[in-house]
Amino acid sequence: MVPRFVFQLSHILLLCIFIFPALGAPSEAVSPVCVNPLRVGYNDWPPYAWQDPQGEAQGLDVELLRAFAEHLGCEVTFINVPAKRSHQMLKSGSLDMMMGATKTAEREEYALFSAAYRDETVRLFVLDENKDKIRLTQWQDIFSQKLRLLVPISGWYGVDYEQTRQRLEQEHLLILSPDADKSVQMLTYGRADVIIGDAMAMPYIASQHQGVRLSPLKPVLDRNQIHLMLSKQTLSLSQLKQFNAAIKALRANGKIARIVYKWQQISLAQQTKTSHQFNSLSAQYADLLTFN
After folding, report:
1. Class of domain 38-119+225-271 as given by CATH
2. Contact of 128 with 253, CB cutoff 8 Å
3. pTM of the predicted model over 0.70
4. Which of 5, 7, 46, 276 is 20 to 30 A from 253, comparing alpha carbons?
C-alpha cells in the first residue's frame, strides 16, 4: 500500500510539469529584433534617399525602411554618408544596415542580403528637346551613330555596358562623371549626347536639381532586384529572417506597392512641373523674337 503523502507529492509534481513546462527545458523565447536603434547609412540619391534642409532623411527607400522597422518595433537612426565610405562602415560594423542595394558576390563577403523589396530599371536618356533627333533602339546604335555616353562613375548599368566599356573608351564615346547630378549638368552643357541611369532617379534629379526634362530611349538595359544590406558584424541571421518576414507582410498587405506608387507620382509631378516651366519660358522667348 502506497502512503497517501506519496500520491499528494506525485500530484504536485505533475501540476508543476503542466503549469511550468519551461522548467528543466531549453528556453524558446524569441529575442527582440532590435535591442538598439539601427544605424542606417544612406547617401543623396533622390527620389530614393536624400537629406532635407532640416537634416532629416527623406525618400522612397527611407519611407520603406521606416515601415519595415515600425512593423518590427525597431528604432532607426539614419546617417548621411558617401556611398563608398558607407560600405567600409558596414564592413567594420559602424553601420548596421544600408538600403537600395544590388546583390553581388563581393558584397556578400561582409553583408547579409534581405529578400528583394523593390525593382530597379536602368535606361538611356536624352534631353527632351533632342528626343526627335536621337533615335536609339538598341545598344549597338551608340557605336553606329557615334553617340557620346555619360556614365556616373559608381553603379551597375547592365551587361551591355560592362561588356563594351573598353570599346566605348577606345572610340572616345565614354564620358565618366562623379554622380548623376553632375551627369545631367554635363549633358545640358553639351558634353555628351546620351546619359545612362536609374529609370526613376535620373529624370527626378534632372527636373529637381537642374530644371531640365529628360526623355527615355527605347532600350531597357537592366532590371535588378533591390535589397537591404545587413552588416555581418552587428546583425544576425535571425534578424535577417525577421526583416524578410516584414518585407513579405508589407508586400502582402499592399503597403510597399502604395509607397512605391506614391513616389512614382511625386517623380512624375516634378517632371511635369519642369516641363510646364520650360514650355512657358520657350513661349516667352518666342514672343520676344516675334516682337523684335
Report:
1. alpha beta
2. no
3. yes
4. 46
* Structure-block grid coordinates of residue 141: 546604335
**Grid cell 548596421 in the structure block, residue:** 96
Report yes or no: 114 and 228 within 8 Å, Cβ to Cβ.
yes
Tens digit of each residue's pLDDT (9 = 90 or more) over 19-44: 444 443 333 334 568 889 999 999 98
- What is the C-alpha to C-alpha distance for residues 206 and 48, in angstroms, rounded to an integer? 14
CA 254 to mean position of chain CA atoms: 18
The residue that leads in pLDDT, 110 or 209, is 110
In sequence order, the β-bridge partners of residue 177 are 152
CATH number of 120-223: 3.40.190.10
Write the DSSP string, the chain. Answer: ---HHHHHHHHHHHHHHHH-TTTTS---PPPPS-SS-EEEEE--BTTTBEE-TTS-EESHHHHHHHHHHHHHT--EEEEE--HHHHHHHHHHTS-SEEEEE---TTGGGTEEE----EEEEEEEEEEGGGTTT----STTHHHHTT--EEEESSS---HHHHHHHHHHHHTT-EEEESSHHHHHHHHHTTS-SEEEEETTHHHHHHHHHS---EEEEEEEEEEEEEEEEEETTT--HHHHHHHHHHHHHHHHTTHHHHHHHHHHHHHHHHHHHHHHHHHHHHHHHHHHHHH-
C-alpha cell of 40?
542606417
Same fold, 38-119+225-271 and 120-223: yes
Q: Does residue 154 carry a pLDDT above 90?
A: no
Give me the residue spans of the domains in the chain. 38-119+225-271, 120-223
